[in-house]
Specification:
- With 288 residues, the chain is α/β, with parallel strands linked by helices.
- The chain has a single domain, classed as Rossmann fold.
- It is built from eight helices and nine strands.
- The strands form two sheets. The chain has a seven-stranded parallel beta sheet, with helices on both faces. The protein has a two-stranded parallel sheet with strand order 7-8.
- Strand 5 (159-164), helix 6 (176-195) and strand 6 form a beta-alpha-beta unit.
- Helix 2 crosses helix 8, helix 4 (90-104) runs parallel beside helix 5 and helix 5 (127-155) runs parallel beside helix 6.
Length: 288
């Protein structure tokens, strides 16, 4: 008997009604740009910010996903716009920010959520596979960060950047390319948090552990079945829990925070193990 594939992520109905700790209209008169917003954490965060009064601009490569996400949010009377963009192209990123500034007068918050990876033992990652993940996760994030910062500097206004990172205290097995890219994001964040402080631009990272999102469908079911054992809470986090954290970093409650990496992994970095591809036989008799 074939085992049913588990359902990951949250439906639009769930995202529209999920309880939040935040007061209504927290982000009234704020504009937020979210990359990779057609699904998963990006879409959940878009729902949260929009429900709290923000104008939210969804951007990403997959137009169908963006349109589907935007349609559901618009039906809920939320203020949503979409822009198709490949963040790996610095020229397109520059054009995106020109468009956003001309059309909406700018943004207040940038959530760099876009990214992607595939599980594979490091020794077997092809040069093209390595470059693809670095280009998307690291270079694309940097192009967005720099373009936003330049616009805020030109206008002489404050800005807030929230970057997606990864829990890399001890690496992440079978996704070395992602670790390399996200480590680059983390240390770029720490660096520009100081450089851009005179510009009143804050830059922080969120670092989720195993989260129940559509991205889990890229992993083999045999690997995913053990993911919840990778943290002492023995469960997946939800996209809404990550969205609430991103909401905190976008709010005035975090005004004295910059250059930080906030981990949301159920304590996984202190306990357990996670093999994204397949645990080698060499380690099969070891339980952590």
């Amino acid at each position: 008997m074939t085992q049913a594939q588990p359902v990951f992520g949250m439906s639009d109905t769930q995202l529209a009604s999920a309880p939040t700790i935040y007061t209504p209209n927290l982000f009234k008169d704020k504009s937020v740009l979210i990359s990779g917003a057609g699904s998963g954490i990006g879409k959940a965060t878009a729902w949260l910010y929009a429900r709290l009064g923000a104008k939210v601009i969804l951007c990403g490569r997959n137009l169908d996903k963006l349109q589907t996400a935007a349609y559901a949010m618009s039906k809920a009377q939320l203020d949503i716009e979409i822009r198709q963009i490949d963040i790996r192209d610095d020229n397109l990123v520059e054009q995106l920010f020109e468009d956003v500034w001309q059309t909406f007068g700018g943004i207040d918050i940038l959530f760099n959520n876009a990214g992607g990876q595939f599980p594979k033992p490091a020794i077997d990652i092809s040069p093209n596979g390595w470059k693809a993940v670095i280009d998307n996760n690291l270079n694309g994030t940097w192009f967005m960060m720099q373009a936003a910062a330049k616009k805020w500097r030109e206008q002489g206004v404050a800005g807030n950047i929230i970057n997606m990172a990864t829990v890399i205290d001890r690496g992440m097995l079978d996704i070395a390319h992602t670790c390399a890219a996200r480590a680059g994001i983390i240390y770029t964040t720490k660096t520009v948090a100081v450089e851009w402080a005179p510009l009143k631009i804050r830059v922080n990272c969120v670092a989720p552990g195993v989260i129940s999102s559509e991205g889990m469908n890229t992993y083999a079911l045999s690997a995913v079945e053990s993911f919840s054992d990778s943290n002492p809470m023995k469960r997946f986090g939800t996209v809404w829990e990550v969205a609430e954290l991103v909401g905190y970093l976008g709010s005035n409650a975090s005004n004295f925070m910059t250059g930080e990496v906030i981990t949301l992994d159920g304590g996984g970095r202190y306990w357990g193990e996670l093999w994204a591809h397949k645990k080698p036989e060499f380690f099969s008799d070891i339980k952590i």
